[in-house]
Amino acid sequence: MSLPPIKRVLLKLSGEVLMGSQQFGIDPAFVAELAAEVKAAKETGLEICLVIGGGNIFRGMAGAAKGMDRAQADYMGMLATVMNALAMQNALEQLGVQTRVQSAIEMDKVCEPVIRRRAERHLEKGRVVIFAAGVGAPYFTTDSGAALRAAEMKCDALLKGTSVDGVYDSDPKHNPDAVRFDTVTYDRVLADNLKVMDASAVALCRDNKIPIVVFSIREKGNLARVLAGEGVQTIVQDS
Ligand code: UDP
């Protein structure tokens, strides 16, 4: 199984990759490296939508585990994703890439609200659109936000750049014998509860036939390799 031709892509980056080698927060030097990869991908003629998580700053579940109200903690997590979006916007614009941030929580001093038609226009004009604040509601994650924006922006694929190089049959951090899939179906991911994205995000991609490509963004040049159909990755799609 290989990917269909990709003209427009949604790239989802976990918040934790923005930390670089730090334990928390944003490492501007590493964000600049990521931005350079995004720029290189754009220069191949792709239209790029970006969604960035917030796990390097705050996760709602972690707050709830320490006794916070879950919804309140989730709103804090969404605000973290806006900070990451602004950091990535800054890094891209320093490289001369035009961008717009659209947030699902309105914040008109710093970015636009999510307006699909406007986002279309930005892409037509060659801008990278960074979607922040996930779906704008608690009890979701930015994976669901990424799947939602990929569907509404009619992206040809959802690329999930994370710290692991694909989808495994068990957690490779705990099981040295874990096996990575080259390809796997949405239904297998859901039935076996494989750790790719949360179930709502996988189901949304399945229902809208959006292939999910899971790869490590920590390795330099990997985004370009994956877009060229090379490199190590797992593709989630129907068989
Ligand atoms: N979040 C949310 N609704 C959304 C997207 C995000 O409530 O639509 C909150 C949630 O608390 C989540 C946090 O924002 O834990 C950060 O996002 P996520 O965990 O997806 O970041 P990542 O793991 O990709 O860094």
Return the CATH class: Alpha Beta
Distance between the termini: 7 Å
Rough outline: globular
Mean pLDDT over the full residue set: 96
SS strand fraction: 15-25%
* Largest sheet composition: 9 strands, mixed
**Biggest β-sheet: strands ordered side by side in the sheet:** 4-3-5-2-1-6-8-9-7
Instruction: Give the distinct bound molecules.
Output: uridine-5'-diphosphate
Which architecture name does CATH use? 3-Layer(aba) Sandwich
Enumerate how many helices there are, as a single number. Answer: 8
Number of self-contained structural domains: 1
Low-confidence stretches: none
The amount of helix comes to 25-40%
Order of helices and strands: EHEHHEEHEHEEHHEHE
CATH superfamily: Acetylglutamate kinase-like
Give me the Rg, rounded: 17 Å
Characterise this structure.
It comes from Erythrobacter ramosus. The protein has 239 residues and is an alpha/beta fold. Helix content is 36%, strand content 17%. It has a single domain, classed as Carbamate kinase (3-Layer(aba) Sandwich), CATH 3.40.1160.10. It has 8 helices and 9 strands. The chain has a 9-stranded mixed beta sheet with strand order 4-3-5-2-1-6-8-9-7, with helices on both faces. Helix 1 links the parallel strand 1 and strand 2. Helix 1 crosses helix 3 and helix 5 runs parallel beside helix 7. The chain starts with 7 loop residues before the first strand and ends with a strand. It binds uridine-5'-diphosphate (UDP). Uridine-5'-diphosphate (UDP) binds next to helix 2, helix 3 and helix 5.
